[in-house]
Amino acid sequence: MGVAGKHYPHHVKPQDTAEAAEKEKPSDERVRRESWFGHLLNRPEFAAISGTVLVFAVFGFGAGSSGMFNLDGVMNWSQVAAYLGLLAVGACLLMIAGEFDLSIGSMIGFAGMMVALPATYFHWPIWLAIIFAFAASMLLGALNGYLVMRTRLPSFIVTLAFLFILRGLTLALSIMFADRTIISGVGDLAQNDWITNLLFHGVALHGFFTWLAHMGVGTLLDNGQPLVPGIPKVILWWFALAAVSAFILAKTRYGNWILAVGGDANAAKNVGVPVKRVKISLFVLTAFCACLFAVLQVCDIGSAAADRGLQKEFEAIIAAVIGGTLLTGGYGSVIGACFGALIFGVVQIGITYTNVSSDWFRVFLGVMLLFAVLFNHYVRRRVSQAQ
């Protein structure tokens, strides 16, 4: 006897037949199995990580015995990468949202001058001058974003205008108040202020690095101090900013909003995403990153200059693109942008450890950018076809 009018052989149970029927069902063509390599290839940071491995292999072979990978050499190229990494994080998130900020470089010079002028010529406390610089920079970032949203002009045009406005304003203010374009004396003020010294000046873990040098790890100078006194504060800021930004992009609703706005702003608006608020906040973030760059640089070098930050906006965009961020928005990775900045730092400093002329540095950057754009185009076409 069977069930519900169906008859089965005596040696076959109904559940066995059901399992066999389930196996005979055609597979859902919408469900596609993907190899681990294919999944890895579709990750936005894959190209940057691969490029980083390649760059380390090249310099490990060409400059491995020159001291590039000694502790002092590692700190040199890590510091260069960290400065650019601060900018790359902000530029990456803004580009994922489908916008550009070409005023980042000019903002660095402007913010540095906003720290130096009040502190040295108006005798403000250095911590108050730093707060003033952050406030002014972020307000200008908000103005950038507001104008882009209000006028619906391409952000490329609006921020290009601010590139010239801020650079000219920095030069004019420095000449007006100081009668020169370089203002020094900020380093001593930063060192003597405990808040600024703790957050922005000098290095961290000095005692630990001194102990390492006495243990034979690193070089000990004749005065008993280590050649590498500690980890530059900019590296710690870079790690902290990258970690927070990567978490926000990958794990929070705001991160989903950023991706949605860059993918299709109209569709995102129709489902309730506050498109204008998201984009303006990201312009504020890029201004914050530029000001943080300026404050750390001014406290480290001890001076502010009106021409600081030249072409840094393009270097930040290059790092983000090498890291897998699409120029059209909607796709990218903060981690990838950080690897892009690392490639930049390793090449810029590493080339001085080799016999290769430093004139080839820009050529290498251009080639890396071209390969990154081609690879990102290939990945995007794969993703589109899969959908």
Automatic annotation (TrEMBL):
Residues 13-30 have a biased composition (Basic and acidic residues). It is found in: Cell membrane. InterPro entries: ABC_transp_permease. Keywords: Cell inner membrane, Cell membrane, Membrane, Sugar transport, Transmembrane, Transmembrane helix, Transport. The chain crosses the membrane at residues 46-68, 80-97, 127-149, 156-178, 198-222, 234-250, 280-305, 317-348, 360-379. One of its GO terms (cellular component) is plasma membrane. It is a multi-pass membrane protein. One of its GO terms (molecular function) is transmembrane transporter activity. Part of the binding-protein-dependent transport system for D-xylose. Probably responsible for the translocation of the substrate across the membrane. Residues 1-30 are annotated as: Disordered. This is Xylose transport system permease protein XylH.
